[in-house]
Write a structure and sequence with these properties.
Mean pLDDT: 83
CATH architecture of the domain at 186-263: 2-Layer Sandwich
Largest sheet: 4 strands, mixed
Helix content: 25-40%
Distance between the termini: 36 Å
Number of strands: 24
Radius of gyration: 22 Å
Length: about 475
């Protein structure tokens, strides 16, 4: 595992292709539209606007500089999650080619021993990392992970888990992947990478080139955003890969509009979709150890089977959602923990975990557990914290479901319908992933989305933009037409 390579976490999807006899593929480059250049100043204002609207980032403590599409973030934040989130927000803005994150953090309030214990427990609680003997060392809030895992993606998952622990200031991932006894040939690796790029609903793979030599993957061509570049990088870590080089994969904001999926890729067959989802599940560290069933009818995927943790069920559902061509997912996977916890003990564990989270420590969240189902009530300051509480509870062993009844207070003055619509449209304008055929109407603080979009992921993103813009409720009437 090459720790010098940085990747943004994202569930990978898979597309089954026939073996390709060449080790590289070529595409015709798109031509940027004339008269539509995005100046650094426009990009800077867009990044600052997105940071200001986010509930998890203290935007007033951050400075944004942009030069040739490269965003540099400086300033201070309280925790590593906020720093990482700020970088991710900037990365997802149209016109951003890359992000240099120089945000500094306050010194930790816990001792290194306390942080070490918390990170160790978090790795043991997560279904994707609990099976591996990962050693944790901490020095001045910097977490060092060592040991051997089964894949690069499992190592990346371990980094994500550690970053979510309160008072962690940095994660130095020195995990290594066990080498394969029989490494696949470069032609097979290339076909595997192309398959994942093709299956990823967030990508338009027609402009991406893939070259493989001795297990080293080199990506070239163009993508429409830094977000897509990170996904392409992540997707490329397939079995047998020892390094991914993406310096030649250029970010051009016009590429997202210039290249849309065409031909057979827009309407995959039932068999192809089932194979794509199956491969995505086998590639996901949180799901790969379970045998799940997949049925696809009219581009609607139904998942069934048994897992031992709620996180695996949710990850499987997201893998199916992220597969190109899927228009709806029914997740009937059952959660049956290996160890049944008493409701009182599980209640205490959920409460303690919520209190330890840097975003939720001060919120008045009440926890009630019955037969392993966690009920969350009370209040949080924002919608982000409401969703964060649900996500944190989901990770705990023994939880079979989470019913989120938290009411966020938001803490911001109400907007007029006109202001609300303008803010929602701003999100669509600057998000390179957004489909153009979404129509927004607002009445009494409630937004209605109509039109047609290309994928389930785009539908979810549109709804999120409406809530991020400040809508009290969202009626999502978007129709998916691959």
């Amino acid at each position: 595992m090459n720790n010098a390579l940085v990747v943004k976490p994202a569930p990978a999807a898979y597309w089954i292709l026939l073996a390709i006899p060449l080790v590289s593929c070529t595409v015709t480059a798109a031509v940027p539209p004339s008269g539509q250049a995005l100046s650094d100043q426009k990009v800077m204002f867009a990044v600052e606007g997105q940071l200001e609207r986010d509930d998890a980032v203290v935007s007033g403590l951050l400075d944004v500089q942009v030069q040739d599409g490269i965003v540099t973030l400086t300033g201070e934040q309280d925790d590593l999650l906020a720093k990482t989130r700020a970088g991710g927000i900037a990365e997802a803005v149209k016109g951003v080619r890359s992000v240099v994150n120089r945000i500094t953090l306050e010194p930790p309030t816990q001792t290194d021993v306390e942080i070490q214990t918390a990170v160790h427990n978090a790795l043991q609680d997560d279904a994707g990392t609990t099976a591996f003997p990962i050693e944790v060392h901490v020095s001045k809030g910097i977490v060092i992970l060592t040991g051997v895992v089964n894949s690069w993606k499992t190592g990346r998952l371990a980094t994500e888990v550690a970053e979510g622990v309160s008072d962690v200031r940095e994660v130095d991932n020195k995990l290594t992947s066990a080498p394969l006894t029989s490494p696949p040939p470069d032609t097979l690796i290339q076909a595997d990478v192309l398959a994942r790029l093709q299956a990823d609903a967030w990508l338009d793979p027609g402009l991406i080139t893939v070259n493989v030599q001795k297990g080293r993957v080199t990506l070239g061509g163009a993508v429409g955003s830094a977000f897509e570049k990170s996904r392409a990088f992540y997707d490329s870590w397939v079995a047998g890969v020892i390094a991914v080089i993406d310096e030649a994969l250029d970010v051009q904001w016009w590429a997202r509009d210039a290249m849309r999926r065409k031909g057979d890729a827009a309407s995959p067959s039932k068999s192809a979709l089932e194979k794509s989802i199956q491969a995505a599940l086998e590639d996901d560290p949180r799901v790969q150890s379970f045998h799940l069933h997949i049925l696809v009818e009219d581009h609607q995927a139904t998942l069934s089977g048994i897992v031992d943790n709620l996180r695996a069920k949710q990850a499987a559902g997201q893998d199916a959602v992220n597969t190109w061509g899927v228009t709806e997912v029914q997740n009937y996977i059952k959660v049956r923990p290996v160890q049944r916890w008493k409701d009182a003990n599980l209640t205490q564990r959920v409460r303690e975990t919520l209190r330890q989270d840097p975003y939720l420590a001060d919120d008045e969240i009440r926890v009630y557990v019955r037969h392993g189902v966690v009920y969350l009530t009370g209040g949080t300051a924002s919608r982000f914290e409401r969703l964060r509480a649900e996500d944190v509870a989901t990770r705990i062993k023994g939880v079979v479901d989470v019913r989120n009844q938290i009411i966020p207070s938001y803490g911001q003055p109400p907007k007029s319908d006109r202001e609300l619509k303008a803010d929602i449209l701003t999100y669509f304008l600057w998000d390179p992933r957004a489909d153009r055929d979404v129509h927004v109407s607002v009445k009494d603080g409630m937004a209605t989305l109509t039109g047609s979009i290309s994928s389930w992921t785009a539908r979810e993103a549109a709804e999120k933009h409406a809530y991020d813009g400040g809508a009290r409720n969202v009626f999502n009437d978007l129709i998916i037409k691959p």
